[in-house]
Structure formats: C-alpha cells, structure tokens
Design goal:
- With 328 residues, this protein is of the alpha/beta class.
- The chain folds into two domains: 58 residues, no CATH class; 203 residues, Rossmann fold (3-Layer(aba) Sandwich).
- It is built from nine helices and 13 strands.
- The strands form four sheets. A six-stranded mixed β-sheet has the order 6-5-4-7-8-11, sandwiched between helices. Strands 1-2-13 form a three-stranded antiparallel β-sheet. A two-stranded antiparallel sheet has the order 3-12.
C-alpha cells in the first residue's frame, strides 16, 4: 500500500497549481515587430528556440511539484500481523544471603550460577512480564514487572551478596514477590523462589506468605540451590582469600510445603546443569500466550520523485542560460 509520511505537506502544491492555471489561461504576450505592412510576412511558425524558451518555466513548476511530493515522503507500506494471546507475569525471588557465595558449583559460586540460569530463562520468554525481588535479612524489589529485557538484565547483573544485611528471610521474600503480583491482570501469575538456606528471620513466617500467595492466586515454584552439609566458602585472611569448609543447611521440607500450598512444584539443584533443568521444567509448565505485533516496515520512494525534479531543474537552467539565453 502506498502511503505518505507527511501528507499535509501536499498543501504546498496548491499555490504551484494556481500558478499553472494562471499561466495556461493568461499566456505571455507574443513577440511583436512593427512594420507598415505585416501581410508581407505571412504566418511565421515559432522556432525551436522559442518553443524551448516557453517550455523552461513549465519545467520549473513541474520540478517543484515533484519536490513537494518527495517532501511528503511517499513510501510503500507493508501491513503487519497481530497474533493474540495471553502472557505470564513472573516474579523471581532470589536469595542473596552470604551462603550464596558457596563454591560447590565450582568454578562459580551459587549466586553467579543462578544468575546465569535466570538470564537464559528471561531471554527465552520475550512475551512475559518478569520482575526481580531480592531477599536476605529483608526483601526489596530490584526490578518491577517489565517487558524490557535490557533493563531487567541490567538489574540482574548488579545483583551480588552483601546488598542486604545477613540473614535468610524466605517469608519476606515470598510475600514481597506475591504482593508485586497483586494488581496483575495476567491469567497466570507465578513466583519462582530460589534459596539455599533456612528461614532464620522471624519477621514473617514462610507458611503465612504461602497462604498470601494462595489467596492472590499466585503459583509458587521453589528451587533449593546447593548441597547439604559442608561447602567451600571464600574467606579473607591476612594472607589473602582462602577456602574454608562451612556447614550449610537447606529446609527442603519448607520449600515443598510452600509449592504444594500454591499449586507449584519444588526442585533441588546441586549443579548448574540441574538448575537449568529445573528452570526448563518451569518454562514448559508455564506456557506463554501473548499478543505479538509483527513490525511494519516501509520502502521509501521519495528518491523516485526527487531525482526527476533535480533533472528537470537542471534542464530548465540549461534552456534559460545556454540554449535560449537572450542578449540585450
């Protein structure tokens, strides 16, 4: 379909058309020669030079009309296609307590491994709104629900242990994430809770937060990260960083109860590959319906009008200044 980017610019053609009409109905007076008896000359046809001289102004007006059309930016538009559907709103609640620095996912720690898997999960679901909540001794929203993947991934890259005081407030993290989905109109609302510890902050019990999520119609998938028992931790010493074995515990029973109460599932990852598999399972369970607008593109045609206009102007200038130039 042929369209104009700036159709209002065609109004500039109105005075040009008026000039065309005036010149057609009021031609310039022909050249005359005084003589006592003009009948001797008979009918004299106009020479080629005279005809070219009369043509030059018309060429200029035609060129200006073409330039007006070019300025309006004619282009061939290709229609877009809309695919209707429903997206999923997902909040990822990520534990950033100190225990997430354990190196049992060597060569990377638990947090960096989790960030890598979450990044792949985000990129695999371009039509869903996804947000990020962080928790340790308290919880806060790192990124609200968004479709902007660059902003979300930028916030994810900034996540590190130590942003919040030490502790593992699973209840607060879950409640914060579920609360962010309170006003969501999506058909499916999901929280992915990822932690490697036990709830040791009594501000809000995880069971209460799970009940809140259930009331709001939010499904919770819980993911336990890391191995039970001793795990290597980097520790700063006067002689530089050293690895030290520290006991770690994960309350899998709690995570299972949360998932069952809200209709989700729970998983345990002791390696990066297992963590990828858990997120792949969640990805399959939460099928995404969406509305996708195929981008409309245009083929610009202004050059097809501007180039002939330039040629006409050059031709008119040659006619007036070279071939039909009048000398005093």
């Amino acid at each position: 379909m042929l369209t104009l980017a700036h159709p209002w610019l065609l109004l500039a053609a109105v005075p040009l058309i008026a000039i065309l009409w005036w010149r057609y109905h009021h031609p310039s007076a022909p050249a005359s020669l005084r003589h006592s008896h003009t009948a001797l000359f008979g009918p004299l046809p106009a020479s080629l030079r005279v005809r070219l001289a009369r043509l030059a102004p018309w060429l200029v007006i035609a060129a200006l009309l073409l330039l007006v059309v070019a300025l309006a930016q004619p282009r061939r538009s290709y229609s877009s296609e809309t695919v209707a559907g429903e997206g999923v709103d997902i909040l990822i609640a990520l534990d950033i307590s100190g225990s997430m620095q354990a190196l049992d996912f060597a060569p990377r720690d638990r947090l960096e491994t989790a960030k890598d898997v979450i990044r792949e999960f985000i990129l695999s679901r371009p039509h869903d709104r996804i947000g990020l909540v962080l928790f340790a001794s308290r919880a806060f929203t790192q990124c609200p629900l968004t479709l902007d993947r660059q902003i979300l991934l930028g916030f994810l890259d900034e996540v590190e242990c130590g942003l919040i005081e030490a502790g593992t407030a699973i209840g607060l993290g879950l409640a914060m994430a579920a609360g962010r989905l309170r006003d969501s109109t999506a058909t499916s609302r999901v929280v992915i809770l990822l932690t490697d510890g036990v709830n040791n902050v009594p501000t809000l019990e995880p069971e209460t937060a799970a009940e809140l999520a259930h009331t709001l119609g939010v499904r919770v998938y819980t993911v336990a990260v890391g191995r039970e028992g001793l795990a290597p931790f980097p520790v700063d010493t006067p002689f530089g960083p050293r690895l030290q074995q520290i006991e770690t515990h994960i309350d899998e029973a709690l995570l299972r109860r949360i998932a069952e109460r809200t209709g989700g599932i729970t998983g345990r990852a002791t390696s990066g590959e297992e963590l990828k598999n858990i997120f792949a399972t969640i990805d399959q369970l939460e099928t995404s319906r969406y509305e996708m607008q195929v981008l409309t593109w245009h083929r610009e045609l202004a050059g097809w009008f501007a180039a002939p206009a330039f040629c006409l102007l050059v031709l008119a200038a040659l006619l007036q200044e070279v071939w039909t130039r009048r000398l005093p």
